[in-house]
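Complex record, two chains
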Amino acid sequence: MTMVRRIAIAVLALFWGSLLVAQGDPLVDALRKYQGGDLAGARTLIDQAVQAAEHAENPEAWLLRGFVYKDTYKSATEPQEADQLRDEALLSLYTCIGLDTAGSYKDNAKQAYDFLTRSYFNDAAKALNELNEERALRVFAKFKDASLKLDPKSDLRVREVEFTNALGTVYTKRFNQDRTNEDLFNKAVDSYRSVIAMDPENYGANYNLATLFYNRGVYKIQRINADDEIPTILQIQEASREYFQQALPFMLKAHDMNSTRKETLLGLEGIYYSLQDQESSDKFRQLFEELPQQEER
Amino acid sequence: MVATRLLRILFAAPFFLFATVPQQPREPEKDTTAMLQANYLYNIAKLVEWKDAGMREGNFVIGIIGSANLYQELIKQYSTRTIGKQPIEVRKMPRSAEVERCHILFVGRSDLALLPEIYKRMAGQPTMVVTEYAGALDDGAVVNFVKVQNLLKYEMSMSNAQKHGLVMGLTLKNLAHRVEE
């Protein structure tokens, strides 16, 4: 039995100590089952309890239901089932907080609610790490909904920026595996632009967006082959130029934020070179070469 | 928090993409100018006629002085091709004005100092000298790469071409940024 579960049982036992002597009450029976580690039995009984008129408005019952579902969620192996259990746990805890006008259970309910909300964010991060952006988006939306439901004034910008930046990276990685997929490219661009809209000084988003555009321009030129004739070469160059020009302001912005970063100096050198601006390219190459190793951040 | 760390690692990953940005010398796979120049040279070769009968036999030789990336790009993309019936042979020339006879000789901007002597030695020879600096046509180059509105284009001199026994095709002329008659 985990420490958290021991604490939960202790809290519940404290509140419901007087009830434990009662017989035939599904709430009491559910608590007994929960204390005994029979989560399935506890779940059946607590579902009956909250449907009964005497407990439907009882914050204690909803708190227990929240804990039962939370623990059941933690032992679930299938993601879809786990999500449903977690949703139920959150709903129960939220109901408990709403009904608990005396504030007797609020702290415990809120603590469990926060744990479950954070678990959505963790799952979103895990899904991104597995390059499963669909699940990541779904559970991140749940994280936001759950956070705002409890506290509509929650400032989620930091999390939003963190998540969207990572999402952009996932789209970029997937686009790099399939360069013909315009949709992935656009999604990556939109992700970074969205981060920049929320946080214009975000170094990573500025740098990554610049890199994305620059690499796209380079890739178009890399695809040139012997079958391409001069008019095609000019068209390809014009298309690539668009990407290089789009990359430039974001790389300049990233450079302005930290002028001693090696990668932005090389980035600007590369962008200007591809824009056929040798003078500016040489200038950033020189700045890079003058950069002492220890100043590199 | 583990999730935050995961996100940070993930989000930091593209930072390393620019680790492939050209070092000194520039990495060939990012040298867009070399890629464009290689294709231009190939297309130009297809659109020019060498009047000298001896140049219409054997390999079609493209000599490169400087620009290692252009040399590599030509080898990679065009060395298995032919110009007419002549197989392309790409040669990396030593940094010297004593140049072997070739159909096209490209001299990169890092070796401009060699050019006065090269122009002298190539006078009247059926070699097309291609360069990449302002005023090259006045000095004797037949084709010169120029940068126009962030694009790489070429200019050409008809009179210089004639001096080397080269007949520049009409298409090549029409697509040039500038033609000196």
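Note: Chain A touches chain B through 55 residues (CB under 8 Å).
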